Input
Amino acid sequence: MPRYMYLYKGEATPADQMSDEQRNQVMGKWAAWMEKTGPALVDWGNPFGESTSVIDDGSTGRPSAMSGFSIVEAPDLAGAKTLAEGHPYLSEGKGDFAIDIVELVPPPSMG
Output
């Protein structure tokens, strides 16, 4: 079954900058989404830390505001999008956060 990477875009608050109550609230939302998603969630992923962008002219730039990733399995892109419904990263409703959904395809044959 195809796999899709969720790339979390937006400046998320690091867990170490939240109160215990805030962290528990956020983690509760994640736990509920992970339970709902079930075995389709093949890698719950990680938050991203410090980053940079290396440009093909040898310079560096400001990286995209991505804060983490997850990987799901779904029959198609529409199914992967459906799995994102109710995702805690999309719960604010202010337009500050987004999930880019990208199919992970096998590399081309080298032979």
User: Anything to note?
Assistant: The first strand starts at residue 3 and ends at 9. The first helix runs from residue 20 to 37. The chain has a mean pLDDT of 92. The chain is about 25% helix and 30% strand.
